Here is the input.
Amino acid sequence: MVEAVLIDLLSLTANLQSNIQGLLHNTLEAIEKCSSSHAPFVYVMCCQRQGSERKGEQESLLPALRGFRSLKRRLEVVCAQTTVAALYTVKQRLDEKDLSIIKVIVPALRKDLMKVYIDHLFTAVYQFKFEDLQVAPDSESLQISEHQHEGQMLPSQDMALIQSEIQMYLESLPSLKGELTILRSSLIPDDIFLHGFTTRTGGISYIPTLSSCNLFSSSKRRDPQVVVKENLRRLANAAGFNPEAFHRVKVDHANAVCIMGKTEPDDYDGIVTDQKGVTLAAPGADCIPVLFADPVRRACGAAHSGWKGTLLGVSMATVNAMVSEYGCNMKDILVVLGPSVGPCCYRLPHESAKEFHRIDPKCVRLFDSANPYIDIRRATRILLERGGILPENIQDDSITDQNQNITFCTACHPDKFYSHFRDGTNFGTQIGFISIKD
Here is the structure.
């Protein structure tokens, strides 16, 4: 069942005429007839010429909008100067209502163009169906380049223009939920390394569970890659690293480690380098983003450590890669555990809890219950110390001076951090990042 209908009039409203109003009236009439029991939400995208008022544009369409009782409360005219501005506004309306099945009624000659915009601004969460908006071929108001034909791939220059238009629009949007904030550890020397852990503020992601500096996009969530890329650009500007030399682990919840400069594995939860100016990053939305720094050999690393990766020893696997690849001394390596779900909130089934109990009984609370509380941070520290990392070279929530603490519980601080455990499947992601300064 179609949940929303998008009618694209952006190319038709340069000179609003009675035939355009008639076209819209007939289209709405067909929608109403086909959906008498469950009326969809309807969004009409029209062109707002520079200097014109939105109200005036809407009023010119009023004759065509009258008389549709079942659609009246579900119909909205979206006026914008560009396709990306109009479509992004429609996306916000869809996300507010958690709508995913959309019919797009678009002039045939604009269909391929619209598909490119949609591919960039939406993810696989949404399902789109396309229907031709019947427009007379000699319509003077239809403004589409002559070389563009339905069913043909857009020229690469047009694709580049669309990408540039989207990027410029997203860059113009204001930051949400306050300024971009980066947490830094006093353990890692800032004269050698650039590093930090992000919080959820200062980006443009607007969906509540993703707002606002979400730094991961997937086919199962509503934040598209272009929005995450813009959030990353803002982070890079604030932190001082090059977003084009940014490498994030490819999470597999295991213990494989990527060595920068060597063949990249398909999936890995740890990554190390001794190259200057290359920024490594590990995500976390309850799982621990772990950063590694050796100021003597000038090497660094990042790891993503969830409960599975913790048990598989991903942190020590990252340390061992630094030792074997760059000649690091175990005693020189510094390790910082970032914001992650704490033992106050995190529970696992009893069978999984047994594995943490074997590491140390103190890693489990209420062990005899069906879902004991688990301390993946303590388990990580214990495994690192057993591997040879000095206790004083590990920073986690056991730090004496709580003013220096950055290993906050993500589930306990909804204003500062994302949490899969707390927010469900459409959750946002923060990261830990590190690089060696030039």
Q: What stands out?
A: The longest helix spans residues 18-34.
